[in-house]
Design a protein that fits this description.
Blueprint lengths: L1 H20 L5 H52 L3 E8 L2 E8 L10 E2 L4 E3 L6 E3 L2 E6 L11 E6 L6 E6 L6 E5 L13
Antiparallel strand pairs: 1-2, 1-6, 2-3, 4-7, 5-6, 7-8, 8-9
């Protein structure tokens, strides 16, 4: 009896195996799936890349904003003139916050994302290849630059800027617009 039960279970297992061995996808079904995945990827990849670039620019814009705010804060805290400095070194935008008495080349430089560049709309003062914004001991701007604008190295219309609107140091973050302002800038 045991041998018969054992043989019957082997036959059932063999039938079960054979039944599943014939199931699966055919070649045309697989090709349809591959083509559909290719079409979806073709449609989605450009949007995804634009989204990633926008996120990078938003992060870099926040870093620039907080660097400028930090310079303003340190100026009022220490009752000295402080500055936020920006430069491009080896294709990478860098920023530093330091007292105005310290030479910018001796400052502690921090990198922005490697895919970000300073845009031509940037209007900060330039001294020895370093763009700078200075704040006096009251936190007011020493001279009024208008904005620092960043964009992607890979092109596109997406821009982000930090716009300094008053001599008292009021600033805001902005993004590209479809029409230019009176100065011809698209980020304001």
């Amino acid at each position: 009896m045991d041998t018969q039960v054992h043989l019957q279970s082997l036959v059932n297992a063999k039938n079960l195996f054979n039944k599943h061995a014939n199931s699966g996808f055919t070649l045309p079904e697989m090709l349809v799936v591959v083509v559909l995945i290719g079409i979806l990827a073709t449609l989605g990849i450009p949007n995804w890349l634009a989204f990633v670039e926008t996120c990078r620019l938003n992060t870099a814009q926040s870093e620039v904003y907080y660097a400028i705010r930090q310079a303003q804060s340190q100026a009022t805290k220490e009752k000295l003139t402080w500055q936020a400095s920006f430069r491009e070194q080896n294709g990478i935008v860098q920023w530093a916050v330091h007292p105005a008495t310290v030479n910018a080349s001796n400052a502690n430089w921090n990198n922005l994302d490697a895919n970000v560049r300073l845009d031509a709309e940037t209007t900060l003062q330039i001294s020895n290849g370093v763009r700078q914004i200075k704040f006096n001991y009251k936190g007011n701007i020493v001279s009024l630059p208008r904005s620092i604008t960043i964009s992607s190295k890979y092109g596109g219309k997406v821009k982000r800027c930090v716009y300094i609107s008053t001599i008292l140091g009021a600033m805001r973050m902005a993004k590209e617009r479809t029409t230019a302002n009176n100065e011809g800038d698209y980020c304001y």
